[in-house]
């Protein structure tokens, strides 16, 4: 059984696949993969088309109109036999075809309808922009989580290398009789603990990578097993850490420099989520104006030039030119217009209230993210000092143990504290980037 386990732990010579993820690629992939964003864009385009259609109603309309009718019984005019007898007043077949022009003039219904469509289109465009920002924010957060998962794997692996090196020294000391067997067992236990931590970190990285692929649409090579950080390629971690996939991400420092300006910007004065609600309220108010204008007279001008058949009792086609003027004035509709106007007015108030809530929520989130960012930056300064101290303490503890002035428990504790300090600093880095991403999504363009 031991031989089988040793065989399985031998380094594999197969070449690992590589997957490189950049923040820009993650953002582009998320926008391309997001059905919600695509739907919002199509909705905005549809609203823009509706706006254009509503504007055409203000202008004259020209159409080709025609009719064909068959009449079974035709009236006749009695005539004396000497005059040819009864004469039909037309023909069984009747037709009329020609262009017609119409122009409707009203008290503002059509113009208010166009304004409602314009505000609706603007609101849909703002909704699409809000979805775009949220999609980018989600992609960025997913990318930073991937970075953190990679960093944890790398840090644990580096700590494992230190533990393995110290364990080898310990084995030599035990064999030479300069170290106790208890210390040798504890050293082996530490390497086992780090191996276990590394396996768990790799499993977490695999899960985070799947979520990242789902959010961004960027698929790593299939069938590669649990991944490793690309910085670990070619290094010896005891022979059992081979992975079929090496993942590479951008360094924290490069992304931090790109996102730092977000902390200097103020809260956006025209956030898309707020603008969408404001435009919706304006659209409802315009609809209320349109319904109010429906109470006013509506005048329709018409003109037509057609070829008609027959010309009364004369069975031939002729050109008929005509013009018309019609007037429509609502008198009684059981309160329909008043209720529709009230409905639009109340919907406008509801949208305005939602816009107010969205603005207050954005202000709250921006202030909270800015405060958290400031606290994290102060905390990171402490983390850096603690990291330096932990690294130096680990070296001193091991040097003291080798000189006979310390215990192995002190070495183990110092190693663990160094790993914890590095992991804490990496987690703070990820949180800082997430807060900056949130600030960027809520700030001025």
Please provide a written account of the structure.
The strands form 3 sheets. This protein has a 4-stranded antiparallel beta sheet, with no helix packed on it. A 3-stranded parallel beta sheet has the order 1-7-6. The chain has a domain at 27-58 and 106-295 and 330-359: Outer membrane efflux proteins (OEP) (Up-down Bundle). It is built from 9 helices and 9 strands. The chain is of the alpha/beta class and 445 residues long. The protein has helices spanning 2-8, 23-33, 35-56, 109-176, 181-216, 252-259, 272-293, 336-402, 408-442, and strands at 17-21, 61-70, 76-77, 87-88, 93-105, 228-229, 245-249, 298-309, 318-328. Helices cover 62% and strands 14% of the residues. The chain is elongated, with a radius of gyration of 40 Å.
TL;DR?
This protein is α/β, with parallel strands linked by helices. It is built from 9 helices and 9 strands.
Query: What's the alpha carbon Rg, rounded to whole Å?
Result: 40 Å
CATH superfamily of the domain at 27-58 and 106-295 and 330-359: Outer membrane efflux proteins (OEP)
Biggest sheet record? 4 strands, antiparallel
- Total of DSSP H or I helical runs spanning 4+ residues: 9
What structural category characterises the helix and strand content? alpha/beta
What is the class of the domain at 27-58 and 106-295 and 330-359 in the CATH system? Answer: Mainly Alpha
Gross morphology is elongated
């Amino acid at each position: 059984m031991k031989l089988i386990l040793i065989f399985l732990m031998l380094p594999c010579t197969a070449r690992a696949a590589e997957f490189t993820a950049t923040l820009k690629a993650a953002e582009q992939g998320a926008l391309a993969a997001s059905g919600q964003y695509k739907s919002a864009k199509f909705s905005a385009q549809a609203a823009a088309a509706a706006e254009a259609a509503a504007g055409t109603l203000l202008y004259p309309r020209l159409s080709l109109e025609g009719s064909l009718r068959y009449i079974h019984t035709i009236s006749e005019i009695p005539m004396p036999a000497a005059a040819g007898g009864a004469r039909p007043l037309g023909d069984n077949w009747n037709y009329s075809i020609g262009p017609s022009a119409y122009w409707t003039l009203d008290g503002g219904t059509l113009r208010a309808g166009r304004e409602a469509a314009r505000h609706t289109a603007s609101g849909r465009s703002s909704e699409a922009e809000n979805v775009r920002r949220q999609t980018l924010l989600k992609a960025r957060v997913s990318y930073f989580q991937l970075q953190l998962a990679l960093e944890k794997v790398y840090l644990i692996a580096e700590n494992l290398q230190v533990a393995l090196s110290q364990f080898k020294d310990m084995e030599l000391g035990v064999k030479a009789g300069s170290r106790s067997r208890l210390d040798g067992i504890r050293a082996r236990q530490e390497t086992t603990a780090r191996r276990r931590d590394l396996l768990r970190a790799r499993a977490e990285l695999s899960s985070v990578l799947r979520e990242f692929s789902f959010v961004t649409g960027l698929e790593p090579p299939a069938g590669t097993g649990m991944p490793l950080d690309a910085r670990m390629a070619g290094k010896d971690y005891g022979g059992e850490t081979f992975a079929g996939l090496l993942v590479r991400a951008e360094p924290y420092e490069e992304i931090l420099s790109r996102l730092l300006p977000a902390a200097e910007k103020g809260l956006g004065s025209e956030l898309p989520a707020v603008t969408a609600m404001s435009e919706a309220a304006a659209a409802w108010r315009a609809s209320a104006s349109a319904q109010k204008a429906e109470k006013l007279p509506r005048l329709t001008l018409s003109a037509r030039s057609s070829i008609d058949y027959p010309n009364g009792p004369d069975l031939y086609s002729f050109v008929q030119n005509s013009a018309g003027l019609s007037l429509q004035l609502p008198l009684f509709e059981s309160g329909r217009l008043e209720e529709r106007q009230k409905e639009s007015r109340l919907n406008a108030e509801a949208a305005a209230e939602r816009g107010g809530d969205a603005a207050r929520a954005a202000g709250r989130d921006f202030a909270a993210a800015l405060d958290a960012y400031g606290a994290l930056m102060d905390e990171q300064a402490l983390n850096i000092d603690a990291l330096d101290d932990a690294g130096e303490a680990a070296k001193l503890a091991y040097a003291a143990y080798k000189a006979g002035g310390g215990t192995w428990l002190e070495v183990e504790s110092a190693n663990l504290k160094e790993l914890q300090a590095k992991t804490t600093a990496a987690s703070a880095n990820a949180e800082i980037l997430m807060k900056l991403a949130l600030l960027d999504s809520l700030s001025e363009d």
